[in-house]
Amino acid sequence: MGLFATTAGAIRRVLARTREVMGGSLGGPLSGPLSAEVIDEIEGRLMRADVGPGATTAIIDELRASHRAGRFTGAGDTIEFLKQRLKQRLQAVDRSLLMAPDGPTVILMVGVNGSGKTTSLAKMAASFRSRGQSVIIAAADTYRAAAVSQLEIWADRLDVDIVKGAAGGDPAAVVFDAVTAARARGIDVLLIDTAGRLHTQRNLMRQLTKIRGVAAKKIAGAPHEVLLVLDATAGQNAIRQAEQFKAAVDVTGIFLAKLDGTAKGGIVVAIQDVLGIPVKLIGVGETPDDVETFEPDAFIEAMFEP
Amino acid sequence: MFESLSQGLGSALRNLSGRGRISEDNVREAMAEVRTALLEADVHVDVVSDFCEEVVAAALGREVTRSLKPGDEMIGIVHERLTELMGPVDSHIMLVEPVPTIVMMCGLQGSGKTTTCGKLAAYLKGRGKSVMVAAADLQRPAAVEQLGIVTAQVDREGRGSAKVHFYAEPEKCAEYGRVTGVAVGVCRRAVKAARNAGVDVVILDTAGRLHIDDALMKELESVNRAVNPHQIYLIVDAMVGQDAVNSAKAFHERLAVDGVILTKFDSDTRGGAALSVKRVTGAPIKFVGTGERFEDLEEFHPQRMAGRILGMGDVVGLVERAQQEVSEDEAERLAEKMAEGRLTMDDFLDQLRSMRRMGPMKQLLGMLPGVGAAMKDMDVDEKQLDRLEGIVHSMTSRERENIKLLNKSRVKRIARGSGTSQGEVNKLTRQFEMLQKMTKQMAGGGMKGRINAIRELSKADPSMIPGMSGMPSLGRRGTTKTTSLKRRFKQRKKGR
């Protein structure tokens, strides 16, 4: 939909910097037939990218099957073939944000503590604003100290409205007010920031379900998007996170934050495979402009770099 | 915590136990499963390879082939190596004279530095040390304010009488990346202020940063040179994956980290990052963060953690928590009362409260051996405990002193007052009477009485324990429950 920058170059740019700093070399792509050595190398790279043992085994099995079926010959480049397959697999999904045909589009941001919800939300607000859409932010993190202030500073910098409640107050009430305000003021996009919570805390997960329910009750079809903000450094536990958040609020997509570090975020491959949740946006820096749509090609390329 | 890894390793090694004597091939096969378990736990791929090699070498060196129970032998070796990899024990915070001891916190964004600053301040305050927490995160919006609120709360509510000060220069904050370097001056002035105020420890909360952000990493180096901290702690999210190795290495190379604090350990992460980070930095893991409250900071004990990995539970940790929550005087007073059989409903309430102060029921139960796996999907109803408190609160003080006063009309009143049913009130009184009887026997009844009391206890229905009705039965035998209930009823009638 062209809302967010789509320059696949950003990941490459960031990666170049990563290589420079870490002093790593690209190490020529593995050519030749599918040997034990090649499999070891592939396994190592997938593992280092946090794809995880489960998905890695599945990928290698698939590779072996293709090899047996003669779909690539010994002369081919195993890794190139593998990349193509992975790209195809990730490509087949719609990654655009669902926008309400009329009335406010409601986007709910959820995630564990410290994954980057507030910063990611600010980035989205900036993008919508730059396209001339009106934005309102609901500060429904009433729990963490100064979370509302953090969002207020962002709202001020980005010149968007904010709806907030009392510290320690009921987050669902804040959402109720925000939805009412968004409708009354004819706002285009309502972004809801929620408190970080570990997916193991059932009470807090139930609270999240309630928040979602409040939005759904006021506006048909809302929330139009529920984005799980995932830290790119996350390990295998992210699958559990995605599972639990999906069960609680029916997550529609992932905002993969902090992809500008050395972490590859390979866990999203497993999450899309197992749970069918696609990555929709990525965060690649600290400024409000550092948000982009997810480009599977660039992502896969980056994943295989050592 | 490490429960899921325990399950993984458990199944891998159980396979081994079924096979009688083992050969080198057997060991290698089992290690393949150990390897998968460790990778699933997010231990770095290279660390896993090293670990497995070491275990195989150790196993073969010990002639495991001759062992009758190869599974047990392997568990022993894996446990030992895990302990070694995560150890040695060191949760000591080095304090210096003259004061203040300077502690610097650093880490990636969102790892939990600010929250951990509050926890560390509370930990030190609880040990009688005065603390100054300084806000050197000038980048993230409202980070200074957040730390201020956390610090004030610790000062107000934290255990111990020592003061927790807050140092900040909020006017120095600016948009991300615009104030690189300013934190150096803030830290320097904070240390000066701490010295003047004569506080024992000053904690510097720095901004989260990427390990590849050269400008911000240089800022940390400058802070390091300017104030020369006695301790530099790296804060690591326990849910982090393979990249933990890269970031930990980068921070360590620039700052020579003295210790690691793992956060968000109350999630169901397997926490393999602990192994990786320890291996890369060589710095001890000092503490783990286990909850949202500022008391939720625990000392890290590698052997216990290795025990957890292998499903052996964490009894020592549980006892330690109990000791922290119940003062010695209180315990002595209670023991006296128990010996005389004078245990009242008020004491029960106190006990219930101190138990709950130790943390959520589920977390406590998870520390018991064998319970960990069973508890994984169980929902402990903390509300049930609230109801119990409610029932006791609805009793008059005379009733609390003497439970035998309760008759039908009183029970009715209590049930109405606490919003519970008469059945619930009766159930509580029954449990309480049983407890009373047992404690009396335990304390004063001589050897025979004690044995009887323990027998009674082992017969008790686990569902009698409040809020735990969903718990799997602990293998209760016999049906003496009904008769003993009848007998107790008669006794109560007689006593009235």
Commentary on this structure:
The complex is a heterodimer of chains A (306) and B (496). Chain A has 306 residues and is α/β, with parallel strands linked by helices. Helix content of chain A is 47%, strand content 14%. In chain A, strand 2, helix 6 (147-158) and strand 3 (161-164) form a beta-alpha-beta unit. The two termini of chain A are 33 Å apart. Residues 18-29 of chain A have low confidence and may be disordered. With 496 residues, chain B is α/β, with parallel strands linked by helices. Chain B has 3 domains: 2-86, Four Helix Bundle (Hemerythrin (Met), subunit A) (Up-down Bundle); 101-312, Rossmann fold, CATH 3.40.50.300; 328-346 and 384-494, Signal recognition particle, SRP54 subunit, M-domain (434 Repressor (Amino-terminal Domain), Orthogonal Bundle), CATH 1.10.260.30. In chain B, 57% of the residues lie in helices and 9% in strands. In chain B, strand 5, helix 9 (244-255) and strand 6 form a beta-alpha-beta unit. Chains A and B meet through helix 1, helix 2, helix 6 and helix 9 of A and helix 2, helix 6 and helix 9 of B.
Can you give keywords for this protein?
heterodimer; A: 306 residues; alpha/beta; eight-stranded mixed beta sheet; 47% helix; B: 496 residues; Rossmann fold; 434 Repressor (Amino-terminal Domain); 8 strands; disordered N terminus
Summarize the structure.
Chain A is of the alpha/beta class and 306 residues long. Chain A is built from eleven helices and eight strands.
Set out the fold topology.
The complex is a heterodimer of chains A (306) and B (496).
Chain A: H1 9-22, H2 36-48, H3 53-68, H4 78-91, E1 105-110, H5 117-130, E2 135-140, H6 147-158, E3 161-164, H7 171-184, E4 189-194, H8 202-218, E5 225-231, H9 237-249, E6 253-257, H10 267-275, E7 279-283, E8 291-293, H11 296-303
Parallel strand pairs in A: 1-4, 1-5, 2-3, 2-4, 5-6, 6-7
Antiparallel strand pairs in A: 7-8
Chain B: H1 3-17, H2 24-40, H3 45-61, H4 70-86, E1 101-107, H5 113-126, E2 131-136, H6 143-157, E3 164-167, H7 182-197, E4 201-206, H8 214-227, E5 231-237, H9 244-255, E6 259-263, H10 273-281, E7 285-289, E8 297-299, H11 302-309, H12 315-325, H13 328-339, H14 345-357, H15 361-366, H16 371-375, H17 382-393, H18 397-401, H19 408-418, H20 422-444, H21 446-459, H22 480-495
Parallel strand pairs in B: 1-4, 1-5, 2-3, 2-4, 5-6, 6-7
Antiparallel strand pairs in B: 7-8
